[in-house]
Amino acid sequence: MCGIIGYVGTRDVVPVLIGGLRKLEYRGYDSAGVAVVNGNGVEVVRAEGKLANLEAKLADKPLHGTFGMGHTRWATHGKPNENNAHPHRDCTGTVVVIHNGIIENFLPLKHQLQKTGHEFKTETDTEVVAHLIEEKMKSGMKFEPAVKKTLKELEGHYALVMINANEPGTIIAAKQGPPLVVGLGEGENIIASDVAPLLAYTRNIIYLEDGEYIIANDKKVDVFTADDKPVHREPKKILWDAVMAEKEGYRHYMLKEIHEQSRAVRDTFNGRMFEESAEIFFNDLQFTPKEWAKIRKIHIVACGTSWHAGLVGKFLLEEASRLPVEVDYGSEYRYRNPIVDDGTLLIGVTQSGETADTIAGMQEAKAKGAKLVTICNVIGAAATRMSEGVIYTNAGPEIGVASTKAFTTQLTAFYLLSLYIKQLRGLDKDDIRYAMHELSVIPHKIETLLKKQEKHIEQLAHKYQRAQDFLFLGRGVHYPIALEGALKLKEISYIHAEGYPAGEMKHGPIALIDENLPVVAIATHTPVYDKVVSNLQEVKARDGKLIVICDEGDEEMKKFADDVIEIPWTVEPLQPILSVIPTQLLAYYIALRRGADVDQPRNLAKSVTVE
Ligand code: F6R
């Protein structure tokens, strides 16, 4: 939902901005632009489409300076063309603004400004901010107070970076909703939508809270509350390596991230699971048995892939806790007046920790007295700051827009949480120890699966790449994997795909089956294995093309299916971590064959900070 970056210091600013925007491009790639302040005043270059178009323009018209800002856009208000690309300026061209979010009251503000003679050049909501600041400066106000006054007039969600070309060296940035982080350097300071662009310059990061704004120059950064009170906040040290956010020789981030899953899952359980004593320990989440005894029900709120992780989580947590677990989309939960009280545990699942719908759902539950826990991948993200407990997934930065390693680490976190609940309930230690051992060998099984199956899946992608539709089937813990497999395929290859519970197929979707419909089914050994096999017979009887993800050595399945993808055996609650991987690879290689933009699929953005 737009990436923003601002820099003040001594370096040549354009490479800093472009390097940063490259790391933020996952947030939107409809257009990009930079503004640089130098001896010529402020110079702005913008381009429709991906960052590469902006880079080509800058190669023709190089800009130099040590102070500036950059933006990569995911369009909300106004078409994704060059004219609507950020940065935006006031009538004089000196006040320059970039923005992530939506100014909800932009229309009345715009009408009011037009009446006083302001001319608008774009269809964006953002442009009003530049004109509002200008309007105040016209009546003699300095830039700083003009910005402060403007912020008080804005309604909606925003991360804003604002400069005045007549006061070079000062950046003002404000946050209400979307993320904004500040990197404190030596003789330089940098502001961005997430930490990835900052890591090349500093590890000392300040996370801004909603309502806060900063005034920065190359020497210092002052943080203020919405009512202008100074804030003293110690910077956090970020341990991520800048290199972790690079492609490391893989053709796409998505492929790299699929291959990182063994490491990511290990990092999620390392230091939290102690097999010898059969104990689970979470740094940022602790229940006393008494607190736990107060919990009467669990609600899980999430969106997209994280919602699918929540559906698997429901199986694991209901079994461990014997409490009712509901799973809801953030966008539904927030408006359905859910039944929540102080006996409710709300688990928000979010890779980014900034998804607007998930956060609103969490706020709704918190307001009604629920205890909040977040499963999140981004340290210090909004969702974690509002929660009493956090389980970080430790997947490392996920750049590919299609989520992969974030998902398998969310499943790992749910598995650990289910063991933690069993521990709180005083359940059998030997069972818990065995469950831990099975998790400890999962990273090795992921590696084996990738080694043995990747080439084969690439060939299957070649065979099935021209299909117009796909059906994904699964039962029990694999039903959410069927949904996730379908989502992955549709979002990156643009092939229509549906996920369905295998037992439900006969109630409708069976009408779709013919020799042109590939059906991807997950049929590993679970208590419903035989039932799934019967459902697959129904597909075969209608000439559907069956691709079955099954246990290694399932000879019967090999006779029966058109194609099989064998995965290592594990216990049922851990099977989704393995069974999802072939669906990720299949989607990846089909998208690749069809020439789609795997890491940045059309119309999407990695973190959805608007409703
Ligand atoms: C799909 C995908 C999205 C996200 C969803 C929630 O591959 O990535 O469906 O899962 O937008 O995002 P987070 O987990 O950041 O809240």
Let me know the largest β-sheet: 8 strands, antiparallel
Q: Report how far apart the termini are.
A: 11 Å
Report the count of strand segments: 27
Integer tally of domains: 3
Helix percent reads 25-40%
Which architecture of the largest domain does the CATH hierarchy give at level 2? 4-Layer Sandwich
Uncertain stretches of 5 or more adjacent residues: none
Described by the principal axes of the CA atoms, the overall outline is globular
Q: Considering the protein shown, what is the CATH homologous superfamily of the largest domain?
A: Aminohydrolase, N-terminal nucleophile (Ntn) domain
Radius of gyration: 25 Å
Class from helix and strand fractions: alpha/beta
CATH class of the largest domain: Alpha Beta
Bound molecules: fructose -6-phosphate
Strand content: 15-25%
Query: What is the overall pLDDT average?
Result: 93
Give an overview in words.
Helix 4 crosses helix 5 (143-153), helix 9 (304-321) packs antiparallel against helix 16 and helix 13 (405-424) runs antiparallel to helix 19 (575-593). It is globular and about 80 Å long. It has 19 helices and 27 strands. The chain has 3 domains: 3-242, Aminohydrolase, N-terminal nucleophile (Ntn) domain (Glutamine Phosphoribosylpyrophosphate, subunit 1, domain 1, 4-Layer Sandwich); 252-440, 3-Layer(aba) Sandwich (Rossmann fold); 450-593, Rossmann fold. The strands form 5 sheets. It has an 8-stranded antiparallel sheet, with helices on one face. Strands 5-6-7-8-12-13-14 form a 7-stranded antiparallel sheet. The chain starts with a strand and ends in an 18-residue tail after the last helix. The chain is an alpha/beta fold. The structure holds fructose -6-phosphate. Fructose -6-phosphate binds at residues 303-306, 350-352, 355, 358, 402-403, 487, 491, 607-608.
